[in-house]
Specification:
By secondary structure, the protein is an alpha+beta fold. The chain has one domain: Mannose-Binding Protein A, Chain A (Roll), CATH 3.10.100.10. The longest helix has 11 residues.
């Protein structure tokens, strides 16, 4: 039986102008964070440039799990192109990206140029 007996409740953090609440990620140990999509979509640039851009507006690129959630919940807020994640591949010359047309994730050289969206995180 998969019944939920008593839902856990938490407060959604206050949003700044233009921000969109994307959801929460909770790990098996019970720690977690809210994910908030920051307004703005940055044109194609290499991975480090996009990481710097996200930091300059008070955020970070989403990680791979967050990108999956953004695709599931807020796909319409993205263009149907590739977007960098903040996650490096085991081979650090590569990083992960996701296409918001159909949700595929893959890794590629950080020298390639793709779009970026930034998120901010608030601990639960």
């Amino acid at each position: 039986m998969n019944a939920i007996t008593e839902p856990n409740k938490f407060t959604i953090p206050e949003l700044k102008e233009g921000e969109i609440y994307a959801g929460a990620i909770v790990k098996p140990d019970g720690t977690g964070h809210h994910v908030i999509l920051i307004d703005g979509d940055n044109d194609d640039a290499d991975w480090q440039t996009q990481m710097d851009w996200a930091k300059s507006i008070g955020g970070d690129l989403p990680d791979r799990v967050e990108q999956s959630m953004l695709y599931a919940h807020l796909k319409d807020r993205f263009q149907e192109y590739w977007y960098w994640s903040n996650t490096k591949h085991d081979d650090t010359r590569f990083a992960w990206r996701q296409v918001f047309h159909y949700g595929y994730q893959g890794s590629i050289s950080t020298n390639n140029q793709f779009r970026a969206r930034a998120v901010r995180r608030v601990a639960i």
